[in-house]
Amino acid sequence: ELCAETGFARSTTSRLLAALERSALIGRDATGTWVPGQLFASYAARRGDDDDLVRVAMPAMEELGELSGETVNLGVPRAGTVVHVGQVAATYMLASRDWVGVEVPPHLSALGKVLYAAHALELPDGPLEHPTPAAARTAADLRTQLAGIRSRGYAVTIDELEVGLTGIAAPVFDGATAVAALGLSGPTARLASQADTLGPVVARLAGRLSSQITRHRKDGAA
Fold it and tell me: Which of 6, 120, 139, 143 has the fewest Cβ atoms surrounding its Cβ within 10 A?
């Protein structure tokens, strides 16, 4: 039926189905019938977790937005990348875009770099996508940045995803596990010169949020 519907050859259709099954996008029931995969159930559960996380994080996000005036984001590690789950809009007319639901290569974002540094994402191998001259070109280049990020408690990206865009982010923990990253982004012309000042502010609010998340989880368990 799939071959007839798509026009693909049986060998191509079989290969695509196998790839989707390996990725948990589809599966088979006891009769061998194709059904939605486990990834859909996991995603549905995580959406509820995401909503809860954003609700707990919103006061810290709003405070960071008021202090900086920039776009504030909350991202979570998922399937080797960072998914933006919450955002507070900038107060400036010239500001960063709406990032919710947008996937960005983690090595090009401050959110991704702090999650690499916190071991919430597995480091990539080999050459990396480098859309600008400032972007890391190899996994080795990225790895050399992580010790400094851990030491400072925050990451800064300047003109790495695209020229003219700067990001600052810090990790958010639940106990010893990094579960998210709190960050802000805006035009390089306005934000890059403030990175050393705003970085500790982001780290402080991320630390406070970490304590709230851990307490929230324990209260929920009780």
Answer: 6
